[in-house]
Amino acid sequence: MLEIENLMVFYENAIAINNVNMRCKKGVVTGAFGANSAGKSTLMYTISGIILDIKKKEEMRGGERITVLGSITYEGLDIINMKPSERARKGIILCPERRRIFPESSALENLKIGGYLSTRAQAKKTMEYVFTIFPPLKGLKGREGGFLSGGEQQMLAIGRALMAQPKLLLLDEPLLGLSPLIETILARAIKDINKETGITILITE
């Protein structure tokens, strides 16, 4: 489903990603592990295409130059220069590091925002599934995201990503900063999502 060959990303003269090769098979959970500042988030930004938006903003403000080399093939298509919005429409959805929910919006509103690519029927069905896989969220629908615990926010972030109907779900350090108990709950949920939906998952830690 996803094949990465000789991927390199430079921030000015600093190497953020150095010659990465990776293959993610359809319907399988694949892990990429590394120390802090190893380039895991940059890898996810590059696969999702967000790196192109960052690059454009840096060019507009005269900031650091960002260079991306190598190839990323998704379902047989070379997507290295594809816009992030087009990648999202093709099912590549990123759940970023540190949750990045909308803190002043309710949990329900966060989920609805995630469903912008879905039909009404798809959104309804997926939301029901999100509440099944993450039962605590159902009772917290009206609570603002900023008032949720770290574990609840991570459940919400993953749920929001599911609302976008991913074929390839990118989970960037979803267990970061959580208690061992919540880590176990989320790890089990991620496994269940893959098993029950067949969504291909790439996870970094």
Automatic annotation (TrEMBL):
Name of the protein in its database record: ABC transporter domain-containing protein
One Pfam family, short name: ABC_tran
SUPFAM superfamilies: P-loop containing nucleoside triphosphate hydrolases
Family: Belongs to the ABC transporter superfamily.
InterPro entries named in the record: ABC_transporter-like_ATP-bd (IPR003439), ABC_transporter-like_CS (IPR017871), BCAA_Transport_ATP-bd_LivF (IPR052156), P-loop_NTPase (IPR027417)
Keyword Transport: yes
Keywords (A to Z) from UniProt: Amino-acid transport, Transport
Organism listed in the record: marine sediment metagenome
Molecular function, one GO term: branched-chain amino acid transmembrane transporter activity
